[in-house]
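Researcher: Please translate sequence to structure tokens.
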Amino acid sequence: MINKMPTKTPDYWQKACKELSKKDPILKELICKNKNIVLSSKRKPFTTLVKAILGQQVSVASADAIYTRLINLLGKNSLKPKNILTLTEDQIKSAGISRQKTQYLINIAKHFKKNKITNLYFDKKSQKEIRHELISIKGIGNWTMEMFEIFYLMAPDVYPLGDIGLVRALEHFYKLETKEEMEQFSNQWKPHRTVVTWYLWCWKDPQIVEY
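Model: Translation complete:
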């Protein structure tokens, strides 16, 4: 089971930073440089998934801009499944969201509404159970699921090699060329690869990411 109690910082964070800094000088420098940029969770699973969908294959800045337009579109209504479902597809697309992502958002909203998923719904489920449920929704692929595992579950050992930012950082710092090399190389970082991912992301974009 994943520790999903509301917290600003995962309870494993500081220990992981110390251990990684001892064994990896590159990570030591990145952690020191970005020590005030720490993973946190908003504890809102629907919001996390919406932001992950909007963040697919676009920059952090672009995703944030689209998210802001979606929130403005909802007006006084909060970002909840039932409120997304009151919008037409054309209204959602008017926020700068592609037809495909619009359908993904609707699929997720329908699943949350049908299953009466609250902010506490996933608290008694294992990471494996959560992945099995969410990955069945059309639009939630492996990368989106990994973002959910990082930003909602705050799971300690997520290593999203489908993420271009992480791959570019691994190429730059460690001169790794293939996914196989990257996967094998990461064994030395287990079980702290979420922390590794976070600080390698900081190399390209020190803006605090919140899903």
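Researcher: Any highlights?
Model: Confidence is low (pLDDT under 50) at residues 1-6.
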